[in-house]
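INFO batch 0412 | record 1 of 1 | parsing
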Amino acid sequence: FDKATVEPTPDPATCSIGEKVWEDSSKDGVQNANEKGISGVTVTVTKPDGSTETAVTDDNGIYHFTELPNGEYTVTFDTPKGYEPTKVNVGDKALDSDGQTVKVVVDNADDYTIDSGFYKPTVEPTPVPGTYNLGDYVWEDSNKDGIQNSNEKGIAGVTVTLTKPDGTTESVVTDAEGKYNFTGLENGEYTVKFTAPEG
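INFO prediction complete | emitting tokens
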């Protein structure tokens, strides 16, 4: 009797998926010619059996996974530090961003259109609070009426102490004309204390 010829079972076909992570400087969700890839981004594929595999984008932002049998996969992109995800699904599949989590069906064909775009957000500088000055004059009220008259002179060398909203203090001394000034003060409640001059 002749032995029957047993044909070997062919290995199932495998395919590749992948493409690019790029910096979408125009924030329009589409890869433009002048926009560069982002290197060092971790990309994870979850396979039909639940197992995972990771890849890291190269200097041009390119990544790929190979030897994948037919089935449904999930591709997840980590957000690179200092970036935010751009708009998704706004144009040609080969050029737009598919987002950070993408369902991919492998069906006897490679798919190199799975892209994800990110942009650097504009960081608004923290506004510096306005500051103001506080001060005036220490004078000798020779007529004791509580009003500065034109013939009454300032008193030099008087210590003036300012207590700030946080409880800290600052002191200045009146100048030759009796004037004093505190500068660089933010909004808040302050207390000014005058040390009476000798005599």
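INFO post-check: The chain is about 0% helix and 35% strand.
INFO record closed
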